[in-house]
Design brief:
By secondary structure, the chain is an alpha+beta fold. Helix content is 63%, strand content 12%. The protein contains 14 helices and ten strands. It has helices at 2-62, 67-97, 102-126, 132-135, 137-151, 155-198, 206-209, 213-276, 280-283, 328-345, 352-370, 448-451, 463-473, 478-493; strands at 289-296, 303-310, 316-323, 377-385, 388-392, 398-401, 409-411, 432-436, 442-446, 502-509.
């Protein structure tokens, strides 16, 4: 049995582990989709930039630039174009396979840095003003790093792009360095000479010169930076939203599954309780006694237990107890207590104290050894025989009403024992109590679900009200006593749900 229990626990842990991995995979796929979506956008963004470079090249030719410049520029643009097609191909593959290849981050970053370097080179070369390499540096680096930080949440990629940007930018400065000094010296003269020609009527160069390419490109890519950041934020929000929705749905499904599992567990626990309760045949077969009992289970099933055994010698044995905790485990402990009690009754000559100690030994071994649990229970056993009641075990107080009396006696059980299952041997802590039980006398046992029941104002039903109600109805038949005690309790509770099992047992001597 222990091996079977361990196997079941391992299977349950394995199932939950696989379930966790499944949802982790779903979250990862959403993250991958977000990264791919960002890269697809960046690829389209690069196509747009390349197209703009081609347009400016054509405009430069219209403005009268040398043809060899156009060849050189279109060659660079073509290389960037086909390189971007290569990246786009891998993006389509990633989208299809739902796998984001890390190399795409580096490849795309390389393409973007090279594209931006080409823009700076194009700007300086086309305008014949290498000073744009210096004046555009801050905007260039700003655009590059912000774009990378916006699209790729990976530090190594940002370091790679930053280093690549510095290398390529340094190459541009070296390339144009020889032209910087004479241009600095002749800048004013150069501007004065060109200004009239650029604005001359009918000049082909007016399209480029009146709206300088530097202003257009700088304004364009700085504006594009803002647009890229906005897109990145929207994409991140969309990814986070999808992940949050998945987590919510996962949590919802997990709660539903757990509720179903708990519901099934509680159904089993209720069935266990119902299975071991005494039948009407047993309660109606007690010589000289009228016995009535009831139990109403809470939403979270507890471990209430009561029992009744009429014996062949004319005596009748009773039990009432309450297992700590709720749920299936408490129901199992209660069932073990019932089985142990029944077994102890089969041994002739055993006293109530011996039976209680035997029950404790069985429950302690099972609960601590096999269940690996810490549950225990209050349990009182009592026997009626020849006009006397013998009582042992610690539980709630019992109420005893003598025939013709108007005041109920409270029978304390605190010194009759200790919680069952708390320790391996309770023999030294168990004692018995004996008192006369005459015709017309009534004896009431109950569980703490009665006195601790709450109303809508969260006030307890309490021991005092219980005693008062018992004194009012103790002269009635046992079934009527149970009925009116329960009715008063429910009237007090109103619409309040039952928080713990409610149990009553009434024994009344009739002859």
């Amino acid at each position: 049995m222990a091996n079977e229990q361990n196997t079941t626990e391992d299977e349950d842990k394995g199932y939950r582990f696989q379930l966790t991995d499944y949802w982790k995979k779903q979250l990862h796929e959403i993250q991958v989709e977000g990264e791919i979506r960002a890269e697809v956008f960046a690829s389209k963004f690069r196509f747009f930039f390349i197209t703009m470079l081609a347009v400016f090249t054509i405009m430069s030719q219209i403005g009268g630039r040398p043809v060899h410049e156009a060849y050189f520029q279109m060659t660079a643009i073509s290389i960037l174009f086909f390189f971007n097609i290569f990246v786009t191909f891998f993006l389509r593959k990633s989208t299809k396979e739902k796998v984001y290849y890390p190399t795409i981050k580096y490849t795309a970053s390389f393409l973007e840095i090279t594209l931006l370097t080409t823009i700076l080179w194009f700007l300086a070369d086309t305008s014949k003003n290498p000073m744009h390499i210096y004046s555009g540096a801050m905007g260039f680096l700003y655009f590059t790093l912000v774009a990378l930080a916006s699209i790729r949440n990976r530090r190594s990629v940002i370091y790679f792009a930053g280093a690549l940007a510095l290398i390529q930018y340094g190459g541009l400065m070296i390339y144009f360095y020889a032209d910087i000094t004479p241009i600095m010296a002749m800048l004013k003269e150069y501007t004065d000479v060109l200004a009239p020609a650029m604005t001359a009527a009918g000049s082909k160069f007016i399209l480029i010169s009146v709206a300088p390419m530097g202003i257009i490109l700088k304004t364009f890519y700085m504006g594009a930076t803002v647009f890229l950041i906005i897109y990145s934020i929207q994409n991140a929000n969309e990814t986070a939203k999808r992940q949050a929705n998945l987590m919510f749905d996962t949590e919802k499904k997990a709660i539903l599954q757990e509720n179903m599992r708990l519901g099934m567990e509680l159904d089993v626990a209720r069935q266990l309780q119902a299975m071991v309760l005494p039948t009407d045949l047993e309660t109606n077969s007690c010589p000289g006694l009228e016995v009535a009992a009831m139990m109403e289970a809470a939403d979270e099933v507890g471990g209430d237990y009561y029992d009744c055994y009429p014996m062949k010698d004319g005596s009748t044995y009773f039990a009432i107890g309450d297992v700590t905790g709720h749920g299936l485990q408490s129901g199992v402990v209660m069932m073990m207590a019932q089985s142990s009690y029944r077994t102890a009754l089969e041994r002739d000559g055993s006293s109530l104290s011996d039976m209680l100690n035997s029950i404790n030994g069985v429950l302690y071994g099972n609960i601590n050894g096999r269940m690996n649990d810490s549950r225990n229970l209050t349990l009182s056993l009592f026997r009626y025989n020849n006009g006397k009641i013998h009582l042992t075990g610690q539980h709630e107080d019992f109420l005893f009403m003598k025939s013709g009396s108007k005041k109920a006696e409270v029978v304390d059980t605190a010194d009759l024992g200790i919680y069952v299952g708390l320790t391996d041997n309770i023999e030294a802590m168990v004692s018995e109590k004996e008192f006369a039980f005459n015709v017309g006398d009534a004896f009431l046992g109950y569980t703490d679900g009665v006195t601790e029941a709450e109303n809508m104002a969260k006030h307890f039903y309490g021991h005092e009200r219980l005693v008062k109600k018992f004194e009012e109805v103790a002269h009635k038949p046992a079934t009527e006593i149970i009925k009116e005690m329960y009715s008063d309790l429910r009237e007090f509770m109103g619409e309040r749900e039952i928080l713990d099992d409610i149990s009553f047992i009434v024994v009344k001597r009739t002859s």
